[in-house]
Amino acid sequence: MKLLHFSSALLLALCVSSFASAEGWGTIKGKFVVDGKVAEPEALVITKDKEVCTKTKLFDESLLVGADGGLKNVCVWVSLGRRDPQPPVHPDYEKTAEETVVVDNLACAYVPHVAVVRPSQKVEFKNSDPIAHNFKVDGFANNPFNTLVPAGGSFEHQFTSEERVPMVAACAIHPWMIGYIVVKDSPYVAVSAEDGSFEIKNMPAGEWKFQFWHTSGGYLGEVKMGGKAEKDRKGEYEVTVEDGKTTDLGVITVPADILKKK
């Protein structure tokens, strides 16, 4: 009886494993473009440590649009319901599951402006400036912290839980400094580049929902994909990922009037 039970359990495990990998893997990509005019990014008012913080011209990074309308810093992640299982993880992502993600201070700005991390990874909060900064990070699922980092110093932190939306990172010493940290259990996350483009490789094939979120305005509740206008207050949109293929969503148009500064 025990042997039969073990064999049945093994068979079930093999079937589940086969099912998880049988659908294969694909890639999705696209490009976010703003439809309409938005204001030029404002120069930040530097009130402290000007000898360091004015080495580069600092602008408000919450809404950055390229010359061709490309929208930077759109966060794209696979969206799951509370009871939905996590998607299978491609071996390439398993290799990076414990890599350290670096968030730096460079001339009084967070680099990168939007960082992506998994709970299995540590974050090195680094200060490459010759002056002190502090990292004040607030979330919902993770305990907030406010840590001083001296010039040239760093400290490590590990977020234990996924966050529904990106967390805000700020510096109380230099109040114009704002950054974001995306913490997701799934590795299937991307942040759009300067030209608005993004790509997520090795996504399990199948039907998936993705959420679109931007640093100006939050969830992108209105978009146009493939020439079709779509609306969802949580910014969730269905995408089919095909085995061995790249699903190109093309230009994803975002109305300028939903991009409001917070």
Structure description:
It is a single chain. A hairpin with a 4-residue loop joins strand 3 and strand 4. This protein is mostly beta strands. A 5-stranded mixed beta sheet has the order 13-1-19-16-17, with no helix packed on it. Strands 2, 12, 14, 15 and 18 form a 5-stranded antiparallel beta sheet that branches. It is built from 3 helices and 19 strands. The protein has one domain: Cupredoxins -  blue copper proteins (Immunoglobulin-like).
| CATH topology call | Immunoglobulin-like
The N- to C-terminal Cα distance equals 63 Å
- The percentage helix is 10-25%
Order of helices and strands: HEHEHEEEEEEEEEEEEEEEEE
CATH superfamily: Cupredoxins -  blue copper proteins
Which structural class do you get from the secondary structure elements?
Answer: mainly beta
CATH architecture: Sandwich
Question: Which word captures the global form?
Answer: globular
Tell me the number of strands. Answer: 19
Output the radius of gyration.
21 Å
Mean pLDDT: 91
Give the uncertain stretches in residue-range form: 1-22
Proportion of strand residues: 35-45%
Number of structural domains:
1
Strands of the widest sheet, in order across it, are 13-1-19-16-17
CATH class: Mainly Beta
Largest sheet geometry: 5 strands, mixed
Number of helices: 3
Keywords: Signal
Organism: Blastopirellula marina
InterPro entries: CarboxyPept-like_regulatory, Cupredoxin
Protein name: Methylamine utilization protein
